[in-house]
Amino acid sequence: MPLRRATLPSGSLCLSSELVRFQAARALLADVLATKDLPSNVRCALKKVGDLINPDAIHGGLDAFNTPPSDINFPHCGDRIAVHEDGQLLGGKSIFDWTSVSNVVGLPQMYDDKAPTAHDQRDSEFLYRNAEVISKNIILEKLSCWTFPIFAFDQSSNGRILSMMAYKAFESTNLLKTFQIDLHKFFNFFHAIEEGYRDLPYHNRVHASDVLHACFYLTTHWVPAYAHASSGFVSLFSAVELMALYTAAAIHDHDHPGRNNAFLIATQDPKAIFYNDRSVLENHHISSAWQILMRDENFFIENLNNSEYKRFRHFVIETVLATDLKFHFDILMNFTDKISRRRLEFKNESDSLLLGRMIMKLSDVNSASKPADLHNIWTEKILQEFFEQGDEEKQLNLPISDYMDRESCNIAELQGSFMNHVVSPLLNALFQADLLPVDEKTGRCELLENFSTNLYYWKQALEKNTQLTLPIQSGIVEEGSNNVDDEPGPSCITTTTTTTTTAIGEEGKLKKNS
pTM, whole model, 2 decimals? Predict the structure, then answer.
């Protein structure tokens, strides 16, 4: 049986080049549409132009820094992202898709595809009995901090990090009382979900917890656009939407196999066949988690009425699907277009869902805006998982995906490109709309400052052709300890050349569009 190579272009090089140019043009349109006070007739005309140059059934990967429009494969999803870059730090980008068939034969066994083992309800009972202790946990008290010591808490949680963090998030936002949630069923569900995460370097229960933390942070802090709401989006989203967003964060990578969509499609994995090659992983995460939720002992949303349940399910599905990078450009363009014309109206379900998608997307890649040492640890973990896929591709005589060859991967180019072309447009769109948390007194945004520092570091490393020494196999980087004080802080990532050690230098600058 032939293997499908999803990362190869289906048309000629000439055709691919033309398609990339179309997408670069759409990315430029997104930037223009983000401009405030744009005349309505101009806005309407630009949107029509965008529709005219929107080719279907293509998507793409990342380019390196400050290059002309081009396209290369990127390992996070195996998709291709058409990019344009004018030398500035931030800007709109686009994502499209293509697939083709190769002549490689043989269907491999990629991983053990057995269903996750049913969780031990004794653990859920333990969590239930200790709910008050969890509520007062000294580390969880830091949940409202962007520098939350995620690895230290993982070490102290005894495998219950996700269920404990979910409880704290639901309790802190009054969701438990609002919906009179049965704690037995609540802990049954979230503990079953965390046990459904595989023991992978990156896509594991700690990553799910980190995304949940980011969603919690982004929804509970003050933002300038809604200055009257001191508690942030908590008082603006409906309670059902907020609960759906936190639940989506917890399940968004459930039962992830450690391989990207392109690999599953190329190897004709049963999941790819079942979901017709469309958002394979994302659909699986939702479906597998929902099967767990529908068990009587796990159905913690039993008090929702029919309309609330429909809204909850729709919000969860759409926000998890938004993490598929093939939808990146369309979501971003839709957001920048809408936000440039008016403020989001939270009574409008379309508006609140759009913001929910943006929050989920940013939360999923939030490590780029964490302090340098945390960013370094997450970088090591994602690289380890990429390299494991590259190793398997080599064993299967498949072409090794870009940046997945441990012998030749340019880490600085990989990280810099992803941050510059995927993360920065998200940050920029929210920043321009005054929807990122900032310090009310100083106006400083912790996320942007960290992001600028990290991106500047990777750009410097690439320019200097620095040999990075991330301990991909040695495990030198510590994952934290039971002591919160041992958590890596905002100190600089370090790299080495053959003769010297270098730290992050000057931060990049972020400015609002006038």
Answer: 0.76
